[in-house]
């Protein structure tokens, strides 16, 4: 297997690393904590200027038309730099509209590619034990939205949102202006600092053109899993790098604590979790870019991501000892990010349940079934 990136992908990764490194210093993160901003607005403007906000948006709409693997390179850099911007949410929402609503939303997609509007999305309800609480109902011959969508990233700042709503055809994506009549926003802040809001919808009138096709939900969910996992990979890699640096400098009983077997084993566990996530994520990105079925790979990556977020977040925090809970020391931010990203994906137990449901009805899992000569295997 060849995991090497192309020259273009390496160039994109280097540019993204430079951008997020400049904005992701510990000093700037402390300033953001005190600034009461919904996200890093100067960083978002830099993303627009460099085109990082529109990598996955097709060229026909003014984007770069690149694949998920290219986006992975950027999002990993965002995770390492803890870049507080709705980067994957914005462009995956626009890419989904371009894939499934190109004719009716052409102007909106172009504006998203230009950076003149902000899009966001929320798929939390797909992994929630409470299920989808937003519903599309028909009343007096009109379609209405009723119910609630929880913890939608930058909902109060976004111009349009993609939300999951239950309908007669099953769960579907709906395009919503958060300032529509009947929408109430309850703003809040995620545990890692990004602005979010709950949406309460009471008799919000929509038209049929705002409903995306049923298949759009699976299309978006798989790419969102890859995006979140890429951010988590960047978070975890930088978290472990900083921790190794710390345990090699911190001394107890006359030697560096990094020489203690228990610390070494903890770091080894973190390394295994990172490499497991990386390999699964590479496979998912490859299959998405190649147009291959990716249901099982998405669930596997989702599980490994939530497991890595929890294990690495807590083990690195643990070996820091008392300094790890000192908010003037930066390592806690990586734990907060890991907890947030894990919540976005819904946790490992919910993911395993969905993977089990998929396996119960699909017995052809593996690369060999993608080959032309095996398409008729029963």
Automatic annotation (TrEMBL):
Enumerate the spans annotated as Acyl-CoA dehydrogenase/oxidase N-terminal domain: 6-107
Gene3D superfamilies reported in the protein's UniProt record: Acyl-CoA dehydrogenase/oxidase, N-terminal domain, Butyryl-CoA Dehydrogenase, subunit A, domain 2, Butyryl-CoA Dehydrogenase, subunit A, domain 3
Q: Which residues form a coiled coil?
A: none
* InterPro entries to which the protein is assigned, alphabetical: Acyl-CoA_Oxase/DH_mid-dom_sf, AcylCo_DH-like_C, AcylCo_DH/oxidase_C, AcylCoA_DH/ox_N, AcylCoA_DH/ox_N_sf, AcylCoA_DH/oxidase_NM_dom_sf
Respond yes or no to whether keyword Repressor is given for this record.
no
Q: Does the keyword Transport apply?
A: no
Family, similarity comment: Belongs to the acyl-CoA dehydrogenase family.
A molecular function GO annotation: acyl-CoA dehydrogenase activity
Keyword annotations for this protein, in alphabetical order, are: FAD, Flavoprotein, Oxidoreductase
What residues does the Acyl-CoA dehydrogenase/oxidase C-terminal domain cover?
227-353
Recorded hits in Pfam families, A to Z, give: Acyl-CoA_dh_1, Acyl-CoA_dh_N
Could you say which cofactors this protein requires? FAD
Q: What is this protein called?
A: Acyl-CoA dehydrogenase
